[in-house]
Amino acid sequence: MLHAGARSLGATAAGARHSAAAGAQLLSRTPLRGAVHRASALPAAPAPPTRRVRRTAVAAVPSVVPPPAAGTTHESINGRVVSAEALFSSAYLFSLPAVQRPYDWADDNTLQLLEDLLDSLGDDAAQPIADKEQYMLGLITLSESTPGGGAYSRKHIIDGQQRIITLALILAAARERLLTAASGSGGAGGAAPSPDDKSARAYSQMAASLEKRLFQLGDPATDLEDQPRIQLKSQADTGFLTALLTDLEFVRRRGREVHCEGSSQPKLWANMQAVNVRMADMDAAVCMQLAKYILQKVTFIVTLSSSFSLALRVFKT
């Protein structure tokens, strides 16, 4: 079963660049800020203590691909830098193969990633998001679940489920905070002032944009049905995660008992509540900037293989 250890990734200085080999070596050995997990083929082990260290930019995909198994033909792989905006689009619907271990990030890992993203966003509200530093969040290894792939076809996550799911939880919490602000109820305890009409409209529009990224809406013109962005190994876990990402009434059951099954659901719930509490007192304008920063500037190196077996070979290399 694949194992996810605690790792994270970012950038040391604007414009810093490394070779593909250096990037691959760094990803495989450096404990990084934000507690990003790197899977291995070893049995599950307790996550090591997280440490806050400087982030390192990686701008290339390792070019060495292991040879295909004997008798295998027509396998292909491509790698590129992909933004979170693209990752949460119709081009990427995710599923977890049976070999993946359950989601297991603790809330301190999630909050550390959130604080790291806020640090990278910075305090200069006047600086356009486009001018801010890119935040590289590591390697994602995927495989096509159907021949040919393409939009609306699911990709198996071989490596990267902890980061993808956690980033989705953070975006969902941002959506809830923006909807709360747009309704005029302010922050926790109603401490924040009600927004003017222009701000309320902007918050609502941003929240609607986030919802479309967290859940893939269907298209009646092409007979495509609504689909969860992330499909976990069981229907129960998939439904639970989808409710966390899209159902405000479910998420707002803070302090009330929620029935969680298995090993993933308690951690998904705890992480969502921890991020919601952190964002409750956050200024809505900052929350909206954070959501924009994540979508525009958080990037991954994504390798997409034509087959599951090839993706596993790449992952183990």
Your description of this structure?
- The relative contact order is 0.20.
- The protein has helices at residues 20-29, 84-87, 107-121, 161-182, 197-214, 235-246, 248-251, 264-280, 284-297, 308-316, and strands at 3-6, 37-40, 77-83, 93-95, 135-144, 154-159, 215-216, 227-228, 230-231, 298-305.
- The strands form three sheets. The chain has a six-stranded mixed sheet. Strands 1-2 form a two-stranded antiparallel sheet.
- By secondary structure, it is α/β, with parallel strands linked by helices.
- It contains ten helices and ten strands.
- The chain has one domain (75-316).
- This is GmrSD restriction endonucleases N-terminal domain-containing protein.
- It comes from Raphidocelis subcapitata.
- InterPro entries: GmrSD_N.
Task: Give a quick summary of the entry.
Residues 87-251 form the GmrSD restriction endonucleases N-terminal domain. The chain has 317 residues and is an alpha/beta fold. The protein has ten helices and ten strands.
List keywords for this structure.
two-stranded antiparallel ribbon; alpha/beta; GmrSD_N; 6-stranded mixed beta sheet; GmrSD restriction endonucleases N-terminal domain-containing protein; 10 helices; 317 residues; 39% helix
Write the layout of secondary structure elements.
Layout: E1 3-6, H1 20-29, E2 37-40, E3 77-83, H2 84-87, E4 93-95, H3 107-121, E5 135-144, E6 154-159, H4 161-182, H5 197-214, E7 215-216, E8 227-228, E9 230-231, H6 235-246, H7 248-251, H8 264-280, H9 284-297, E10 298-305, H10 308-316
Parallel strand pairs: 4-6, 4-9, 5-10
Antiparallel strand pairs: 1-2, 3-10, 5-6, 7-8
